[in-house]
Amino acid sequence: MKKEFRQIDWNESLEADWHAILKIAAAEDLGDAGDLTTRALIPSGAIGRVAIASRQKGVAAGLAAVAATAEFFDSRLVWTAECDDGASVEPGARVGILEGPADGLLTAERTILNFLGRLSGVATLTAEYVAAIRGTKARIYDTRKTTPGWRRLEKYAVRLGGGTNHRTGLYEAILIKDNHLAFGAETAQSAGTHAYRPGEAVELGRRFIETHVPQSQRAEVIVEIEVDTLDQLDEVLPTGPDIVLLDNMTPETLAEAVRRRDAVNTEVDLEASGGVNLETVRGIAQSGVDRISVGALTHSAVGFDFGFDWIALR
Predict the structure, then answer these.
(1) Looking at residue 190, what is its pLDDT?
(2) Are the C-beta atoms of 76 and 45 separated by less than 8 Å?
(3) Which of 75, 124, 222, 286 has the fewest Cβ atoms nearer than 10 Å?
(4) Which of 3, 145, 197, 206 is catalytic?
């Protein structure tokens, strides 16, 4: 059975990430003086009710933490979700109602909308990529090109958009990239020794797992290597990496890579990376690769537009 990276779902660890960022976000907004406008204009004890509604078409993400975010600002605020995380929404669709002290609502507004907008933007863009390759065997993967501190949250949003999580951090897999090989070559040259080839690097990675990873975890650790040419692919396939990352190859070259892989070792997954956008992704997928990693899912997602609309009290 082929290996897969750990996939991120909402859990206590993810909620802890949210709370850590929430503290920073609140400090940015409130400083030492708090919400001056609300303090000046909103009577203490006033109650309000708002609907959070989508202003565009897309995928809602981050709803799982709205209640905790509201409670952080005022424990008396009550959140009632009207759809689930990952739901497809149309313009004007309500995703939930928040009610309670009006001053708490106004103070929490921007932080809630910022969180929902960021994660829903990632989920929505991911869904567009997933739709673009529908009918092919390929899957869309994220990368580590994430907002510092937001990685697991953004990868959670990728999952809600129908994408698949690549490794979360350096601790999760061995991924041998061109700079690892370049440094090895430079070191070998200065020392007058032999620089290891890509195939040898895969073997070194396997040996490291055998000697440094607890036996109960060895089977889960993925070994992946990046190659730039078909000659490098030919060299690494017999060594049996779990995944070969094909960097910046044309769809025609990718298709040839698939043919060579199928002739040698069908257990090796092929991952395309580089030059991927919504215009090129389908052609890449049609080459027959198994995985397409897309940094744009997290580094180029546009914030999703939600409204915070006052509604009459019951």
Answers:
(1) 54
(2) no
(3) 75
(4) 145
